[in-house]
Automatic annotation (TrEMBL):
<feature type="signal peptide">
    <location>
        <begin position="1"/>
        <end position="20"/>
    </location>
</feature>
<protein>
    <submittedName>
        <fullName>Stretch-activated cation channel Mid1</fullName>
    </submittedName>
</protein>
<feature type="region of interest" description="Disordered">
    <location>
        <begin position="358"/>
        <end position="402"/>
    </location>
</feature>
<feature type="compositionally biased region" description="Polar residues">
    <location>
        <begin position="387"/>
        <end position="402"/>
    </location>
</feature>
<feature type="region of interest" description="Disordered">
    <location>
        <begin position="161"/>
        <end position="184"/>
    </location>
</feature>
<feature type="compositionally biased region" description="Low complexity">
    <location>
        <begin position="362"/>
        <end position="386"/>
    </location>
</feature>
<dbReference type="GO" id="GO:0098703">
    <property type="term" value="P:calcium ion import across plasma membrane"/>
</dbReference>
<dbReference type="GO" id="GO:0005262">
    <property type="term" value="F:calcium channel activity"/>
</dbReference>
<dbReference type="Pfam" id="PF12929">
    <property type="entry name" value="Mid1"/>
</dbReference>
<dbReference type="InterPro" id="IPR024338">
    <property type="entry name" value="MID1/Yam8"/>
</dbReference>
<keyword id="KW-0732">Signal</keyword>
<feature type="compositionally biased region" description="Pro residues">
    <location>
        <begin position="172"/>
        <end position="181"/>
    </location>
</feature>
């Protein structure tokens, strides 16, 4: 046991050796040409300290990062020693967690003489720099626009009404008010063909220094679904039939992506719809003529023909009236579902069938099908084609409140799971049923994408989701 006075002396020596220090839950931005000498940093004490290193420029061939949580090592390095660890950096990001009961030291080894910038963070509540597991969400594209969403935050809480005053809300005519604060999301996109973004260090500070294509015509907060609020971007000025790579930077520290999406061909005629409070998930291209009274060239609640919105809200209201003839909240028709669940599922289904979605075969799809390197599914089969259905100018619109289009187009059918969710959530007396896969369900729905075609095949569809990270959209899920 060392006398206390000597321990104090050792600690003092340690603090002197590490000329700079990292504060808890703070990020230090550094440049190789501007490091303390020696390049060591004292680390704060914490039960579980997570240290992260993020490269903000691509030069870093020989630079290595070492840490120790031992008070008897003052310059951890490649020679190792008790409680000396290397932070391995992969694609520009290094993460290391351990107990640092008495603090410790971080040392930078082999600093290049080139201009190399990076960040170091130390936190007692998880990594400060991170590639998030959740991807951004694509709403839809036109030939030169894209509707994109950040990761969700602040999910809504539903408080079910209770008997005897079981009052369900009517269709929302105005959007709920957004939360006071939100993460700071920054959108970055670039044509995929140049391959630049994916070959860079996958860190927020690196991506933040990159130029983005297109221009953001509108950025707002939108409560699209139960997952929560998202930042919604409407991008304009993109090129037709182009594959783009997207990242979202969160609070300058975390990165989400890459997500790929493809713009439609120059012939694609359908404008985007968004900002519809009664159908918040309708954020895609719909078969209507281009709106002439919109700065953004989209349909929103101010310019959507009232014939469409009025019919829809009348259905909502009538459905709610019928549903509440049942003694909701007193007589339970299911141990799992309530009238409020039924109403939400029905509204969602009604939105997905009332707003037909325009789609288009993606240029790469044919190669995906015929090539043996197509993404194999869990069943080993090649990827399917999307649930597209051709519409001629004489086809009756799928929703009679929509006018006929002057040009042929294709609709992307709703995923049948939206229908089945309403079927499951609603009481039998409403008589809500979905067509069966073995008959003709595929004439009105996308079947077999999320769930398999048979009733008990939940999650067994090919590819198992409505849309993927690569820019394929298989069926319409609102
Ligand atoms: C240093 O880290 C190791 C491995 O996580 C741990 O077992 C040890 O208790 C730590 N020492 C201190 C002083 O925190
Ligand atoms: C320490 O924190 C990291 C990051 O949050 C976590 O992955 C790890 O499991 C934690 N370790 C312990 C021992 O709690
Ligand atoms: C019933 O609930 C609604 C909505 O929560 C509320 O506006 C109304 O005042 C309540 N009525 C009674 C009689 O409690
Ligand atoms: C959000 O991040 C951007 C990009 O770094 C920055 O310019 C902006 O000031 C930040 N906004 C807020 C509110 O922090
Ligand atoms: C985005 O567009 C919506 C709907 O047109 C509009 O209400 C909102 O003010 C716009 N936001 C910005 C920042 O332009
Ligand atoms: C709603 O119900 C009223 C009264 O029962 C009926 O006249 C109307 O046609 C219904 N509307 C729709 C869209 O079903
Ligand atoms: C629809 O399903 C039927 C019966 O399963 C099948 O024969 C037909 O090929 C399918 N049509 C399409 C377009 O997938
Ligand atoms: C977009 O590019 C990525 C990367 O090359 C590729 O994996 C993906 O399949 C492309 N998406 C489409 C729909 O062509």
């Amino acid at each position: 046991m060392l006398p206390e006075i000597l321990l104090c002396f050792l600690n003092a020596a340690l603090i002197q050796a590490a000329t700079a220090s990292l504060s808890l839950n703070a990020i230090l931005s550094l440049n190789s040409q501007d490091l303390p000498s020696p390049p060591t940093f004292s680390l704060p004490a914490a039960q579980n300290l997570t240290i992260t290193v993020a490269y903000c420029s691509s030069e870093a061939v020989s630079t290595r990062f070492f840490v120790t949580n031992s008070t008897s090592v003052d310059d951890p390095g490649p020679d190792g020693g008790t409680d000396v660890y290397e932070i391995t950096v992969n694609q520009g990001l290094g993460t290391f967690s351990a107990r640092f009961l008495d603090g410790g030291v971080l040392a930078i080894d082999g600093v290049s003489s080139n201009d190399f910038s990076f960040e170091i963070g130390a936190s007692d509540s998880g990594p400060m720099h991170e590639v998030l597991a959740t991807l951004p969400l694509l709403g839809d594209t036109t030939s030169n626009q894209a509707l994109l969403f950040s990761l969700p935050f602040d999910p809504p809480t539903f408080t079910d009404p209770s008997y005897p005053n079981y009052t369900l809300p009517g269709p929302s005519l105005s959007p709920p008010s957004p939360p006071d604060s939100s993460p700071n999301f920054t959108l970055l996109i670039a044509p995929t063909s140049s391959q630049t973004l994916t070959s860079l260090p996958q860190t927020a500070c690196m991506m933040a220094s990159q130029a983005s294509s297109g221009n953001i015509a509108n950025e707002s907060l939108w409560l699209r679904d139960e997952d929560g609020w998202r930042t919604q971007w409407i991008l304009a000025g993109l090129s037709p039939q182009t594959n783009y790579t997207t990242y979202i930077i969160q609070d300058n520290q975390k990165l989400s992506g890459p997500l790929y999406f493809v713009t439609k061909s120059a012939l694609f005629d359908c404008p985007l719809a968004a900002f519809l409070p009664y159908c918040p998930g309708v954020t895609y291209a719909i078969p209507l003529p281009s709106p002439d009274n919109s700065d953004l060239s989209i349909y929103d609640s101010t310019n959507l023909p009232s014939s469409i919105s009025d019919t829809l809200t009348a259905y909502f209201t009538n459905f709610t009236t019928t549903l509440t003839t049942q003694a909701c909240g007193r007589d339970y028709y299911s141990p799992l579902q309530t009238c409020a669940d039924c109403q939400r599922a029905y509204f969602r289904w009604l939105c997905s069938v009332s707003f037909p979605r325009c789609g288009e075969q993606s240029p790469s799809t044919t190669t995906t099908i015929s090539s043996s390197t197509g993404t194999p599914s869990s069943t080993g089969l090649p990827s399917p084609t999307s649930a597209l259905q051709a519409q001629t100018t004489s086809s009756a619109p799928r929703n009679s409140a929509f006018p006929s289009m002057d040009t042929p187009y294709s609709v992307l059918l709703p995923c049948i799971e939206t229908c089945q969710a309403a079927d499951r959530a609603c009481p039998n007396f409403l008589g809500f049923t979905c067509p069966l896969a073995r008959f003709n369900a595929n004439q009105s729905y996308g079947v077999g994408y999320i769930d398999g075609a048979e009733p008990d095949q939940q999650g067994l569809g090919i590819p198992g989701e409505a849309q993927d990270q690569w820019g394929n959209i298989w069926c319409n899920s609102v």
